[in-house]
């Protein structure tokens, strides 16, 4: 009897597994739980059923439930890839990294775990590690294998991300672009974007879009599904166009992607952010809505830190345009980003608070003395405030924080330092700075820096009247490069101040400009584009035809005078005024007409209206009855498109209000 029950139980379990397989093949994973639970009721220790339950949870993206099943029923060395994948999808990156490292040490690593390890490294923005793992997998995988293209796609994505982060790629990772799939073409285009090869990137993105349309159409995808898949490619194409200055074309693509249904939220966020960046300070209120989409909390784990930082920067810039200081909160999240400090100072500067902007930059410069952008922004404001001494002090402090002398004595830095010394009236220090920089570059391997500094030194000495010293420096440059026309010209200018013979000697070495051509200036003026014909002097053609006839003058017309006009009597000065306004006019009528002008009929100042011209209703000005949203304060950001003025209750001060029919007021 027991044997019969056992056979019946096994048959039932086999039938239930068949139901599980049928539901899985149909893709209806939620219905697979019912037969799986029945199997576990019959045999709670059925490991195949437990495995099916964990995998079904993964298929339904219920990763925590799957992880609980695996941890509760299986030892730690079983289902390593499934456990790691659940941790990865739960964004527990530190845990999955440590788990995979331990498995690698224990010898439980395989192709799947290494692939996942590379994905985790890419997700945490450790692109060098991801590249190294993907490169190793490519060397071990056959090119005809289906997984080779997947690995190559992710390999190109890691290369592009590394380039976008400002780093360089090792030469061993350079490969020929593959266009076998649209994913490969897309990621190869991203690599070219990182290398700033925008024309090649645009061409490859167009190729990726074409391959995507053709391949998905052959696989019977719907038009909406194809548009969703094309969203990523189109946004990247718009980004490339935006970088090339084709702003209107990029805006059209962004708006088209945002209007399409079912677009991925990550793609929508990036398109919204880029659209805000393209529109800049126009359509601010629409940009506020777009930036809220891009900075939603649900995107925290879907965007990279660098992408979130850029969106935060654009949000800060939008706040600058909207006169809102919201940057300090972002500094707490991204303290390493110097641009946020500049945006914060720009907020004060944009509000005409120059002293506050300088004070903020001084504090930032103290905490980040090595920041070139912060120190240069501070110097620029100090120079705009006509304070070159403060700018000089700021620059000297920044130079003292630079340990690399090659960086410190860059020709650009030296030129700026000399200019600041000159503005501050410290010419001797300027000469010493130039000589010190020249001495450093003479010790160097290359002569480019030495020649540039020596030219600056000679030009400055010539400017302040040290002609002999300037001539010595220019002569040294000419000896090393006799064809340097700039140095020759400077040498001639220096010698001309104290030795004309030497100046004439070197003047013969200068290139001859050549004799000027015979140019008819008047004929050139006639063909200048944009000049109206009325501005062109017309030649006097009549003079060549001979003497012209003199036109007779018209006779003056005699004035018409009245018949009784007496020239000896002066006319009445009030003759032009109406009779009622003349001083001799006498009012006709009875005295009773003056009775209505007593004390009750005296005119009231304002005529019953408020002093501003707006009617006072119950003692309140009509302008105070406006709803608050119609008031535009003076702190509103200046926009390229002027705001329409709100209609106020006061109206025109010089116009009286007309009464409406039937109104008793």
Automatic annotation (TrEMBL):
MF annotations from Gene Ontology: 7S RNA binding; ribosome binding
SUPFAM superfamilies given in the database record: TPR-like
Pfam families in UniProt: SRP72, SRP_TPR_like, TPR_16
Protein's name in the database: Signal recognition particle subunit SRP72
Keywords: Cytoplasm, Endoplasmic reticulum, Ribonucleoprotein, Signal recognition particle, TPR repeat
Stated role: Component of the signal recognition particle (SRP) complex, a ribonucleoprotein complex that mediates the cotranslational targeting of secretory and membrane proteins to the endoplasmic reticulum (ER).
Biased composition (Polar residues): 631-642
Principal location listed in the UniProt entry: cytoplasm
Source organism of the structure: Acaulospora morrowiae
Compartments reported by the entry: Cytoplasm; Endoplasmic reticulum
Keyword Ribonucleoprotein (UniProt): yes
InterPro entries hit by this protein: Signal_recog_part_SRP72_RNA-bd (IPR013699), SRP72 (IPR026270), SRP72_TPR-like (IPR031545), TPR-like_helical_dom_sf (IPR011990), TPR_rpt (IPR019734)
Biased composition (Gly residues): 604-613
């Amino acid at each position: 009897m027991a044997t019969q029950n056992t056979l019946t139980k096994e048959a039932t379990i086999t039938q239930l597994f068949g139901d599980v397989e049928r539901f899985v093949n149909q893709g209806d994973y939620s219905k697979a739980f019912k037969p799986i639970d029945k199997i576990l009721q019959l045999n709670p220790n059925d490991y195949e059923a437990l495995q099916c339950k964990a995998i079904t949870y993964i298929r339904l993206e219920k990763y925590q439930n799957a992880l609980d099943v695996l941890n509760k029923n299986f030892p730690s060395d079983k289902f390593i890839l499934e456990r790691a994948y659940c941790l990865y999808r739960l964004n527990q990156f530190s845990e999955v990294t440590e788990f995979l490292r331990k498995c690698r040490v224990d010898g439980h690593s395989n192709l799947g775990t290494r692939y996942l390890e590379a994905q985790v490294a890419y997700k945490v923005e450790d692109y060098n590690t991801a590249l190294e793992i993907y490169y190793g997998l490519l060397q071990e995988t056959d090119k005809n294998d289906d997984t080779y293209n997947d690995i190559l796609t992710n390999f190109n994505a890691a290369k592009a991300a590394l380039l976008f982060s400002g780093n360089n790629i090792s030469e061993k990772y350079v490969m020929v672009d593959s266009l076998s799939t649209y994913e490969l073409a897309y990621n190869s285009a991203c690599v070219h974007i990182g290398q700033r090869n925008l024309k090649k990137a645009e061409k490859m993105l167009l190729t990726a879009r074409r391959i995507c349309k053709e391949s998905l159409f052959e696989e019977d995808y719907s038009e909406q599904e194809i548009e969703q898949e094309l969203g990523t490619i189109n946004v990247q194409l718009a980004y490339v166009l935006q970088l090339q200055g084709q702003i209107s074309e990029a805006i059209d693509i962004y708006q088209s992607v945002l209007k399409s249904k079912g677009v991925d939220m990550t793609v929508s966020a990036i398109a919204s952010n880029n659209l805000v960046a393209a529109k800049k300070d126009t359509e601010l209120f629409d940009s506020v809505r777009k930036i809220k989409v891009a900075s939603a909390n649900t995107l925290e784990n879907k965007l990279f830190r660098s992408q979130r930082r850029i969106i935060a920067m654009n949000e800060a810039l939008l706040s600058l345009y909207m006169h809102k200081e919201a940057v300090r909160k972002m500094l707490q999240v991204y303290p390493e980003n110097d641009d946020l400090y500049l945006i914060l100072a720009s907020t004060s500067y944009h509000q005409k608070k120059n002293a506050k902007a300088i004070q903020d930059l001084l504090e930032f410069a103290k905490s980040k003395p090595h920041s070139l952008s912060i120190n240069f922004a501070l110097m620029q404001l100090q120079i705009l405030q006509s304070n070159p001494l403060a700018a000089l002090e700021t620059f000297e402090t920044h130079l003292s924080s630079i340990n690399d002398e090659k960086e410190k004595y860059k020709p650009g830095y030296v030129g700026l330092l000399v200019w600041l010394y000159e503005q501050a009236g410290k010419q001797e220090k300027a000469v010493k700075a130039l000589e010190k920089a020249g001495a450093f570059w003479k010790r160097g391997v290359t002569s480019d820096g030495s020649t540039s500094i020596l030219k600056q030194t000679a030009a400055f000495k010539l400017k302040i009247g040290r002609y002999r010293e300037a001539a010595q420096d220019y002569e040294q440059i000419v000896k090393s490069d006799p064809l340097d026309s700039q140095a020759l010209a400077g040498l001639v200018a220096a010698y001309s101040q104290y030795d004309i013979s030497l100046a004439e000697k070197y003047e013969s070495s200068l290139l001859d400009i050549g004799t000027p051509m015979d140019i008819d200036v008047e004929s050139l003026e006639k063909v200048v584009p944009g000049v109206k014909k009325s501005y062109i002097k017309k030649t006097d053609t009549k003079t060549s035809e001979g003497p012209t006839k003199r036109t007779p003058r018209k006779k003056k017309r005699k004035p018409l005078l009245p018949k009784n006009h007496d020239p000896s009597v002066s006319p009445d000065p009030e003759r032009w005024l109406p009779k009622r306004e003349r001083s001799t006019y006498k009012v006709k009528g009875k005295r009773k007409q003056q009775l209505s002008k007593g004390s009750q009929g005296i005119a009231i100042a304002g005529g019953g209206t408020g002093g501003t011209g707006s009617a006072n209703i119950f003692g309140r000005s009509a302008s105070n009855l406006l709803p608050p949203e119609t008031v535009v304060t003076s702190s509103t950001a200046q926009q390229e498109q002027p705001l329409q003025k709100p209609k106020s209750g006061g109206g025109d001060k010089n116009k009286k209000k007309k009464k409406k029919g039937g109104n008793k007021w």
